[in-house]
Design goal:
heterodimer, A: mainly beta, 6-stranded mixed beta sheet, 5-stranded antiparallel beta sheet, 0% helix, B: mainly beta, 7-stranded mixed beta sheet, 4-stranded antiparallel beta sheet
């Protein structure tokens, strides 16, 4: 099946810093989503971005489908940004729509 | 618009017991998914429904897990009998026309 690799696995930053999270995937995709899993376990949708660039406040994301990667940018980090960030993809050659998740990037923002 | 609802939020059982989880998707969403998330890993798809039909259950351990979506709305996931390795968070998600998937808060299962 399709492989999803996220980097870095762990990231510790000071409040106010900027960060870039990367997601590489091994095959063509129809769907790519970025999620933030908060400390209570809730998966929060950040972006639906199978291609192109989107921005939402301090967060933005870019997917270059032809090169099989996506980037999530977080600017002016706040302590509430802490948690695990997951990239999840839907393989375009499959018949079903279940997402394949990476292992996540664990982000800690220190005050 | 109400999100995906799940219950219970937490469950502790002994191994070999049975347990059931319930999910109510976002209104109008035809597609419903159950994922299993083991501690430290990303969620893994167990089963996908389109209305009340199964689209993909290739990763569902069918000797002990079962799921149904009888009227094409709510869904129930059952484990019988439970094993220690079934301890995980069980997440339900729904979507409309294979677009953005929205996740519920999950059910945390601990098998002792």
């Amino acid at each position: 099946g399709i492989q999803v690799e996220q980097s870095p696995p762990d990231l510790i930053l000071q409040e106010g810093a900027n960060s870039t999270l990367r997601c590489n995937f091994s095959d063509s995709v129809n769907n790519l989503q970025w999620f933030h899993q908060n400390p209570w376990g809730q998966l929060i949708n950040l972006f639906y971005i199978p291609s192109g660039t989107k921005q939402n406040g301090r967060l933005s994301a870019t997917t270059v489908a032809t090169e099989r990667y996506s980037l999530l940018y977080i600017s002016s980090s706040q302590t509430t940004d802490s948690g695990v960030y997951f990239c999840a993809v839907l393989y375009s050659g499959g018949g079903a729509d279940g997402l394949t998740f990476g292992k996540g990037t664990h982000l800690i923002i220190q005050p | 618009e109400a999100g995906v609802a799940q219950s219970p939020r937490y469950k502790i059982i002994e191994k070999r017991q049975s347990v059931a989880f319930w999910c109510n998707p976002i209104s109008g969403h035809a597609t419903l998914y159950w994922y299993q998330q083991i501690l430290g890993q990303g969620p893994k798809l167990l089963i996908q429904f389109q209305n009340n039909g199964v689209v993909d259950d290739s990763q569902l351990p069918k000797d002990r897990f079962s799921a149904e979506r009888l009227k094409g709305v709510d869904s129930t996931l059952k484990i019988q009998p439970a094993k220690l390795e079934d301890s995980a968070v069980y997440l339900c998600a729904s979507s409309s026309r294979a677009q953005t998937q929205y996740f519920g808060p999950g059910t945390r299962l601990l098998v002792l």
